[in-house]
Amino acid sequence: MQKKDLVTRVARWALLLEEFDYVIEHRSGTRMTHVDALSRSLIDIFCISFDNILPRLKSAQDNDNEVKAIKELLRISAYENYCDRNGILYKFVEGKELVVVPDSMQTEIVRNAHEKGHTGVKYTEKHLQDYYYIPKLRQKVEKIISNCVHCILINQKRGKKEGLLHPLQKEDTPLHTYHIDHLGPLESTNKNYKYVLAIIDAFTKFVWIYPTKSTTSAEVIAKLEIQKAVFGSPFQIISDRGTAFTSGDFADYCA
Known about the structure:
Nucleotidyltransferase, domain 5, four-stranded mixed sheet, elongated
């Protein structure tokens, strides 16, 4: 084995096989047809389910007012792409003769189709479209799959989980903690002010805004000096760690 970062499972297999003398031989797909059934489409299962459910569909159609109304129209003349065969209403869609599923059985049909293999929206919809006519099928398939408990558990996020929030300690005192940040660039004024420095008191949520021409630490310090002259110095300042707030000059000012 030459791979440096070998997957643990593969390494374990390799160690188990070391005690045997064997030759690895490639076998083309044309010679593996006898095992392909394990990965093939569920279409045969759908055929079996379709034949078994037809009597129930006929009974449900007989109790559906909309289906009964269409059948009555068909007795008089042809109606759109519908036809009645042996008491079961069908609809021709893109050359296929599909059974019309009444409202009372649509959820059951879609759920059963999905649970045959817990396939995704695309393949579940494709299989249903070969046998059944269900209006707004895509929306109904998406709703069923989004509420499938098995799929929700299987598709849970893996890997590193999000960390917990670590709220900063703040005193219940006005002017104890400031939040500061820049807004901009904005449309320049006559005096070339393009940014706004916002200072927010963490306790009262009171906001002071100062126009600035840039986002340098020098301008931030100048505005904080104006703030200090009126309200004094805060105990701590919280920022987004922009360059103006992480520079050496700003660190010296806060020291």
